[in-house]
Design goal:
Blueprint: E1 2-8, H1 16-32, E2 33-39, H2 41-44, H3 51-68, E3 76-79, H4 85-94, H5 99-103, H6 106-114, H7 121-124, H8 126-135, E4 141-142, H9 149-165, E5 175-176, H10 211-219, H11 236-248, H12 251-262, H13 268-295, H14 297-326
Parallel strand pairs: 1-2, 2-3, 4-5
Helix pairs in contact: 3-13, 4-8, 4-14, 8-9, 10-13, 11-13
The protein binds tryptophan.
Tryptophan binds near residues 9, 40, 134 and 151.
Length: about 325
C-alpha cells in the first residue's frame, strides 16, 4: 500500500468533467492505497480571505466529494486547518526555501498578475505549504494534473533538500500518481473545449444541478445548422454532444443519433432532449446524496473529526521525528 495525498481547493462545485476526470480515479485509488484527501482551506486564504464564505465553501467540497464516492472508511478525509502540524512543517520548510525559486514559479507570477493588490507571502510560499501537505505523511504519490506539475517539482525539491541539509534519508521524494488509463476529457456545452466552471455560465453541468437547470443548459448547448452531406465528420460542438452522450447514455442511444447524423436526418432538439434526460438520470443519485449530506451535520462532524484525528496521528509522528532531526531538544 502506497501513501497518497491529495489536496482539494474549496472553491466551486463538482461538474461532470471533474467527475469523469479526477473524481472517478480518486474513488478507485482509495481501494488500493492509503489515501489522505484534505480540503486545502489554508491555501484558499491566499486568494479568498473571506470569513463569510470559508466554512460554506469547505462544506460544499466535503459534501460533494463524499457524495461522489470518497469513502471515510477507506480513506482519511480531513480539513487542512484541523491539522496544525502541517503549519509547523510549513514553517520549517520555509527556512530552506529560497526567494528566487519561489518567485520564479509560474503560478506565483500568474497570481501577481491576477491580484496585484494582494501579493501576499502566502502566495509566494504556496509551494512550501503544498510540500508540507504531502510530506507530512511521508507520502510516495500525489495525484495532480498538468497544472500542478511545477508545484510537484517544488515538493520534490524541498523533500530532497531537507534530506540533503540534514544528511538523512527521511522524506520520500513524492511522485505523480498515474491513473492507468488515459483521463476522459469531458467537453463543455459551449461548443469548444473542455467542461469547466470558468468557461462561462451554462458550459458545465454540476452534480448538484436540478433537472430543470440541466434541461435548460443542455437545450442551450451550441450546435450548428445540421449535416449537409452523408457521413460527414462532426464539427466540434456536435462531437462534444456525442462525447457527453457516450458517458451518460446507452450505446443504443448513441448509435441511434449517430446514424441519424450520418444520414442527415438528425434533429438536434431531440438529441438534446435525450441527452438532458440521460444526464439527469446519471446525476440524480449524486444530487440526492449531496442534498441529504448537506443536512446531516452530525455525520459531517463525525467524518471530519475522525479524519482530523487520523491525519494528526500521522502528522505528529513526522513532526516529532523532524524536530529531532533538526536538533530541537527539551531540557
Ligand atoms: N494546489 C492544488 C490545486 O490547486 C491543491 C493542493 C493543495 C494540493 N495542497 C495540495 C494538491 C497537496 C495535492 C497535494 O488544485
Amino acid at each position: 500500500m502506497e501513501t497518497v495525498v491529495s489536496g482539494i481547493r474549496p472553491t466551486g462545485n463538482l461538474h461532470l468533467g471533474n467527475y469523469f476526470g479526477a473524481m472517478k480515479n480518486f474513488v478507485k485509488m482509495q481501494e488500493s492505497n492509503h489515501c489522505f484527501f484534505f480540503i486545502a482551506d489554508y491555501h484558499s486564504l491566499t486568494t479568498h480571505p473571506t470569513p463569510e464564505d470559508l466554512h460554506g465553501n469547505v462544506k460544499n467540497v466535503l459534501v460533494e466529494y463524499l457524495a461522489a464516492g470518497i469513502d471515510p472508511e477507506k480513506a482519511t478525509i480531513y480539513i487542512q486547518s484541523d491539522v496544525p502540524e502541517i503549519t509547523e512543517l510549513y514553517l520549517l520548510l520555509n527556512m530552506n526555501a529560497y526567494l528566487g525559486e519561489l518567485e520564479r514559479c509560474t503560478s506565483f507570477k500568474e497570481k501577481v498578475r491576477k491580484q496585484p493588490e494582494n501579493v501576499n507571502a502566502g502566495l509566494l510560499t504556496y509551494p512550501t505549504l503544498m510540500a508540507a501537505d504531502v510530506i507530512i505523511h511521508r507520502a510516495a504519490k500525489v495525484p495532480v494534473g498538468k497544472d500542478q506539475a511545477q508545484n510537484l517539482e517544488m515538493m520534490r525539491t524541498f523533500a530532497r533538500r531537507f534530506n540533503r541539509i540534514y544528511k538523512v534519508d527521511y522524506f520520500p521524494i513524492p511522485q505523480a500518481y498515474n491513473f492507468g488509463e488515459a483521463l476522459v476529457k469531458i467537453p463543455g456545452l459551449d461548443g469548444a473545449g473542455k467542461m469547466g466552471k470558468s468557461e462561462g455560465e451554462g458550459n458545465a453541468v454540476f452534480l448538484a444541478d436540478s433537472a430543470e437547470v440541466i434541461r435548460k443548459k443542455v437545450m442551450r448547448a451550441v450546435t450548428d445548422s445540421g449535416p449537409t452531406e452523408m457521413n460527414q465528420e462532426k464539427p466540434e460542438p456536435i462531437q462534444n454532444l456525442f462525447t457527453l452522450m457516450e458517458v451518460v447514455s446507452t450505446p443504443d442511444t448513441v448509435s441511434f443519433f449517430d446514424e441519424a447524423y450520418n444520414n442527415c436526418t438528425v434533429r438536434y432538439g431531440d438529441l438534446k432532449k435525450q441527452l438532458a434526460e440521460d444526464i439527469i438520470s446519471f446525476t440524480t443519485p449524486f444530487r440526492e446524496k449531496i442534498l441529504s449530506l448537506t443536512e446531516d451535520t452530525a455525520y459531517l462532524r463525525k467524518v471530519t473529526s475522525q479524519g482530523a484525528e487520523a491525519a494528526r496521528e500521522s502528522a505528529a509522528r513526522t513532526i516529532r521525528e523532524v524536530r529531532e532531526i533538526i536538533g530541537f531538544k527539551t531540557f
